[in-house]
Amino acid sequence: MYPAQDIKIAVDAIVFGYSNHQLHVLLVRQKFAPMQGQWVLVGGFVHDGESLQAAVERELREETGLTVNYLEQLYTFGDDIHRDLRMRVVSVAYFALVNSTELRPHADTDAEEAQWFPIDQLPKLGYDHDHILEVALQRLKNKLTYQPIGFDLLPEYFLFSDLENLYYSILRQEIDRRNFRKKILGFGFLEETDQISKKNAGRPAKFFRFNNLKYKQLQEEGIMFEIKFA
Amino acid sequence: MYPAQDIKIAVDAIVFGYSNHQLHVLLVRQKFAPMQGQWVLVGGFVHDGESLQAAVERELREETGLTVNYLEQLYTFGDDIHRDLRMRVVSVAYFALVNSTELRPHADTDAEEAQWFPIDQLPKLGYDHDHILEVALQRLKNKLTYQPIGFDLLPEYFLFSDLENLYYSILRQEIDRRNFRKKILGFGFLEETDQISKKNAGRPAKFFRFNNLKYKQLQEEGIMFEIKFA
DNA sequence: GTAACTTTGCGTATAATTTACGCATTCACC
DNA sequence: GGTGAATGCGTAAATTATACGCAAAGTTAC
Prior knowledge:
The structure is a homodimer. Chain A is α+β, with helices and mostly antiparallel strands. Helices cover 27% and strands 28% of the residues of chain A. Chain A is built from five helices and ten strands; from the N terminus they run E-E-E-E-H-E-E-E-H-E-H-H-E-E-H. The first copy, chain A, has helices at residues 52-64, 129-146, 160-171, 177-187, 212-220; strands at 8-19, 22-29, 39-40, 42-45, 70-77, 89-97, 114-118, 157-159, 190-197, 205-210. In chain A, strands 1, 2, 3, 4, 5, 6 and 7 form a seven-stranded mixed beta sheet that branches. In chain A, strands 8-10-9 form a three-stranded antiparallel beta sheet. In chain A, strand 9 (190-197) and strand 10 form a beta hairpin. The radius of gyration of chain A is 20 Å and the shape is elongated. Chains A and B meet through helix 1 and strand 5 of A and helix 1 and strand 5 of B. Chain A binds a DNA duplex through helix 4.
């Protein structure tokens, strides 16, 4: 009925950030055996009286001190019995986004080291975290095309060229700048500000801002966010 | 490190079938307290040496004797600490489709009773299974529009009117029969057979068949399955 | 048998959306 | 001032979606 079951439940978080025109992932150095010293995803065991989501949030706070912009359940990894060498662990993985202008996670209590890695310069990860990361990355790529989550990776005020570059660097698809702009502006959830950037060479660019309230409204009116590429 | 954790892991399956022009869900009558006698989803505890997916498949076999056509992980429900009254249980829910021409699940060992319920004549379910079912139904509706899973709910050979009715009855959206047919045929993964149905009044209809191999090919060539409605 | 009705299957005109570009604007740099 | 670089706006062509009309091939009613 209520069997003696010898399986533990953990949570892991795949935290994506974007800076320097590149997608980054947050990793921590594992403190304990059996993966001591290896880079792994943020995570840990669920406490008895704690919801799954609360567990992820706690681990993020404890190990990295950062608060995320977006968080959703990704997938539960439990088909490989030997993910963890010492005992059976089922891990509920969460997918998180931060707008990492404040890139440095201030290492709090738990983590010796937490560090952002560019997606194409990852170290070998412990456990099956390579695989989990792969699944998360796929989710990110998919979601980018049908939900406006790119804005959760950008600072509140951003340039159109930032947004475009974010899409380009993650999806690695050619984008026609003019059509892209037309399409996004057409949705009507971006606010134009009167701030102007002169950081780059060339004509100064306006800063934009994602209006989430407006997006919710439009969504209820039936508009569909969707970005396809030639 | 490896804490004394008092949480059990279960799996549940939401099995959808389609017959009689209606979507159906498979339920079983719970044999044990605390929900004895109540209708619930097929499910049970995961065994120690068993993958999650294997656990679902075993439960389906044991409780209903049927093999599914499509199976994927849906979501892990573990935020409500008191889902189960007696102890904490985290449930990994799976989403399954059968082409229920053989509608009667032959009740094997475990299940007193297993029964198909039309989606709009459901009993009150035990645990939080109402909620889980709701999530599953939403997934079905979404997937129907961007993956050719409708065919997993139909017999191998089917009429276009069946397919149309399936979409109509699940999504409750008006469909223009002629444009719908044109669109689906346009994908190129349906095989026309020379069998003909005279079941209905009116002009006899050809039977069609979903060619999954062809679909995979076309998918790699970049075609996207997508069905939108006016 | 034939008229009425029902469902299937094909086609075409129109509207809407996507794609491919051209080019003026506005700054920095030399 | 000329050159180059990034931004911002617009327009024509191609593609796709929508709204229907209607012939074909059966069944049913009388």
